[in-house]
Design goal:
Length: 309
Amino acid sequence: MAAVWRARVVAVVWCVGMVWLTITPGVRAQELEPRALTNVPVGTNFLLLGYGYSEGNLLLDPAIPVDGLQSRLHSAVAAYVRTIDFFGMSGKVDLVVPGAVGDWNGVLDGQDTSRHITGLGDPRVRLSFNFVGAPAVRSDDFADYHQSTIVGVSFQVVVPLGQYDPNRLINLGSNRWSVRSQLGVSHSTGPWILEAYASAWLFAANQNFLGGLTAKQKPLVASKLHVIRTLSRGLWIGVGVGYAIGGRTEIEGVPRDTRISTFRFAATGAIPLAPNHTVRISIASGARVERGADFDAIVLSYQYRWGGS
């Protein structure tokens, strides 16, 4: 009986390992975040509040015996960002706290695995800085700055504080630490901005997976491209595409052929309401090649800026 249960656990580990990567697809969707490298005066603060709705096959892997999984997810996020002088380079620190209300409906090995969850996900913190083309600039001198080519990096840590039940398959929290490093390049030519990013996720082990088992996941790498068109008075629109591959998993040392291979697509528009108030609208979609989430999402966010001027 224990051997049968362990085999079932191994079969479904990928979807749990990917819960946090897909639980708020509008916010995280392979981090399709345009203008992440944009230089901003030192001392500027941003407060962001967002709401997203997504539906589709958010957890299903073809190797997992979950029949007809359908998910509907309402997610919310609160974030704070502050620009800093990082040893003469423009930098940012940010904190993001997500929450969600979701319903999952499916059948695992003949058993109903439907679940309704309400709670907080894992918060994350990030440090980013630009080391080419974007020096730290105070507000008094910022009018003389003009972007050409920017190169920057970021390091983000996901803290395992979200809602987690070790006796359930689907959770909002991941119960493990994870780290993402990212390298990005942004080039401005006239009203157009072209961006490219490469990133890698590293995952610690989940030592309490489904009642005390140990779950591990290999690194997940991703690449992203953005094309952005700036318009008048702070209005801009952008489209992006991302591709992720990797993330094979194992339970108690037993490996699974669960390599993720999935695309993300997104279109974003920023609409300034007032000098310090901006609304963003994003439409995102995921499509898997081998394994990964397959969903559609829409995200509406409000951003308030103060300081730095």
